[in-house]
Amino acid sequence: MTSTQADIDRSYSVDNEFFALWLDENMHYTSAAYDDEGHEGRRGAAMPEMTLEEAQERKARVLYDFAEIDSTKTVLDIGCGWGSAIDCMVRFGVRQAHGITLSTEQIRYCEQRNLPREKVAYWLEDYAKFVPPQTLRNANGTPGKYDGLVSIEMIDHLCSPAQAREGLAVSIYREYFNRLAEWVEPGACFGFQAILRNRIPRARKDLDDLAFTADVIFPGGLNPRIEELIVAIAPKWECEKLIMRRKDYRATTAEWYRRFLLHEDTIRARWGNQVWEDYDRYLSTCVKAMDLHWSGDVQMKLRRI
Ligand SMILES: C[S@@+](CC[C@H](N)C(=O)[O-])C[C@H]1O[C@@H](n2cnc3c(N)ncnc32)[C@H](O)[C@@H]1O
């Protein structure tokens, strides 16, 4: 089945200080964007030319633009993590930014951010049960509706390998896109990002490493295929823009891994050898998976039909 709250707590609750050692300063746990695409519309030269911190800010900016947010708009981040995109959107300009996550540690971290109270709200809530607050008004004054949505690599938690084998992936993803469509008015936009799965490795060890990542680091989850997403957004959303971010995610995970390796002694001493070995295996597998097209990443601008 889909990642449960216990699964999510296992994925994100080693504890916040552990992730702070190797993520960027703002704690984005998703692919950064190392180029201009989505802004000036041209692909940059060899990446990375910018720091992880700059590239994460760029990623958030692309999705903010895709969601057509401005300082008059209210936005919901579905699967908001440690609140990194919300932090960015408040700085870029937003009337209010709300977030939902299934992780208790992440909510605690979000609440400790130094953001204006009147602008932000976070809930520990499964998206499938979430109901927008009754007091919410979009920029048109419509109650219970957001102006725009953002969701960054949260859909990867929704369908398990077992469900995919039963042929349920597209219906699970469509349920997500349909449900989110109820939270905005027609014409509203959604800045969406997902990790993808693509080619299947041939070597037993590579298959084992990928299975380890799915079963131990992200239990209950499976990355969608791009074609499943394209089918599942119908009939509620039209895809207006799509950027493949495999190379960006390669650069992101390589930088996470580089930073992680710098802290071996601290990690072994504080969190134990098993955490060190698990994350060593997971992060090195991520870099290889992006290199060899086993995995990829996509950003989409979706408009509610
Ligand atoms: C890979 S993290 C990405 C976090 C954040 N978007 C970022 O860019 O750093 C996935 C997030 O999705 C959340 N999530 C997974 N399943 C969820 C669900 N059913 N409802 C709400 N949030 C969920 C997790 O709690 C986590 O915050």
Write up what this structure looks like.
The chain has 305 residues and is α/β, with parallel strands linked by helices. The chain has one domain (5-199, 221-252, 296-304): Rossmann fold, CATH 3.40.50.150. Helices cover 42% and strands 18% of the residues. The protein has 12 helices and 7 strands. A 7-stranded mixed sheet has the order 3-2-1-4-5-7-6. Helix 8 (204-217) packs across helix 12 and helix 10 packs antiparallel against helix 12 (273-291). The chain is globular and about 55 Å long. The protein starts with a helix and ends with a strand. S-adenosylmethionine (SAM) binds at residues 3, 8, 28-30, 79-81, 84-85, 100-103, 106, 126-127, 152-154, 157.
Topology:
Layout: H1 5-12, H2 16-20, H3 52-66, E1 74-78, H4 84-92, E2 96-101, H5 104-112, E3 120-124, E4 146-152, H6 161-165, H7 169-181, E5 184-197, H8 204-217, H9 226-232, E6 237-244, H10 246-261, H11 264-271, H12 273-291, E7 295-304
Parallel strand pairs: 1-2, 1-4, 2-3, 4-5
Antiparallel strand pairs: 5-7, 6-7
The chain binds S-adenosylmethionine.
